[in-house]
Amino acid sequence: MDVVEHGKPRKAAVAAWVGSALEYYDFFIYGTAAALVFGKIFFPSSDPAAGTLLALATFGVGYVARPIGAFILGHVGDRFGRKKVLVFTVLLMGLSTFLVGCLPTYGQVGVLAPVLLVVLRLLQGLSAAGEQAGANSMSLEHAPEHRRSYYTSWTLSGTQAGQILATAVFLPVAAMPTAALQSWGWRLPFWASALVVVAAFVIRRKLEETPVFEREVAGKEQAKLPVAVLFRDHWADVLRVVFAAVIAAVSTIFTVYALSYAVNSAGLARTPMLWVGVLANVVALAAIPLWAMLADRVGRKPVFIGGSLGCAVLIFAYLGAISAGNYVLVFVVGILMFGVVYSATNAVWPAFYGEMFPARVRLSGMAIGTQIGFAIAGFTPTIAAAIAGDKSANWVGVAIFTAGLCLVNVIAVLTGRDNFRVPTADLGRKDSTGDRVPMTSPGGATA
After folding, report:
1. How far apart are CA 197 and CA 93, in angstroms?
2. pLDDT band at residue 446, thresholds of 50, 70 and 90?
3. How confident is the model at residue 435 (pLDDT cuts 50, 70, 90)?
4. What span is annotated as the signal peptide, if there is one (predicted)?
5. Partners of 446 in the beta sheet?
6. Which residue, among 160, 113, 137, 131, has the nearest Cα to 66 in the 3D structure?
7. Of 329-338, 362-371, 376-385, 408-417, minimum mean pLDDT range
8. What integer pLDDT is reported at residue 353 of this predicted model?
9. Whether the predicted pLDDT of 376 surpasses 70
10. Cβ neighbours, 10 Å, residue 221
11. Within 10 A of 276 (CB to CB), how many other CB atoms are there?
12. What pLDDT band is residue 437 in, cutting at 50, 70 and 90?
């Protein structure tokens, strides 16, 4: 059993939280802008629905780059260290996001504008591919064995904070007159990323490498090609993570499609809908660590599955409330679904996925598995917009589609083993018979 130095778990968790908050601020301001503005300034069309569909597609493009980035950054993280990945990702995300704010519009340079937008979105996706897997690996490997879910959940709390920042920044921007919003107002949140990225870089530069990784370096146990080892010995777990990770569709439907549907189809005001996102994420900041602490006591699977099933039910209520134009129900159900119930899944998956793999391929396994699953989730707003078309009543089809993805997640999680009592040093290992090592309690007794 590893001896965890006092203070290091919290330091690693804080670094993961801050970096993820700033990283996902950058990532989600793009989603908000795609829902509210980009369809009009980068994809002008006589058909507004077509412009919105194309704008949402560019949001999904960032997820296409994620699997590619996962292979590259997963290799770097498992071969050369978690810290290098975390420093690189925050710099790449900050630069690409700032440049989005500098882009000319379609009216200024024609088709070159959406081309450049897609290129920068691809760079954002490459960065995000290594961010969560790197931060989760760092937090898990620094954490006390009986509190791994709690400490790894800080990464997801950071992403919620990033969404709060992204949405909050757009509140005053969205309230601007339409002409000002579409000409220069939308650029301000992107330019602001130049300030926040500096803070994340400084924090991560001071972070120490994990003892698990340092021990592998000292013992020369690193795999020269981690991906080859991963797919040779752990391919089933990679597939399991892929299908479990589609639960992220709840996030993309909530933050991108539902916002676009509410404003552009149901006729709801921009500002209240943005506030739903802000308040739901504020609630999530409190809910995530509580769910994570429960998962450290009862296991990852009960919490994860409960959250997924709850989202499958509540997505009908949320889209139905939007369709009815009932602001009270929109706020109540939106906060309940995204702030409370979806937080159960976010609290658990960083530990649940990370505990499937040994340290030598952990970052690669988490990055590749999650990013392929997230790539599927990234295109759900586009698929949902295609399902709905120009008929508001088609929200039922979108809800059925989202609920179906939640059930895919449940099946994937059910097939996995709950390793919450396995010592950190033994995670992902196999004994001489090829079976996983026996589960043990934090005190070392066989469970």
Report:
1. 8
2. very low
3. very low
4. none
5. 440
6. 131
7. 376-385
8. 96
9. yes
10. 11
11. 27
12. very low
**Residue 131, both tokens:** 């961010």
Q: What is the pLDDT of residues 276-319, one digit of tens each?
A: 988 998 999 999 999 999 999 999 999 999 999 999 999 999 99
The residue behind tokens 């021990």 is 215
Two tokens at 12? Answer: 């690693």
Structure tokens at 170: 């757009």
Pair of tokens at residue 355: 């505990």
Query: What are the structure tokens assigned to 426, written together?
Result: 């033994």
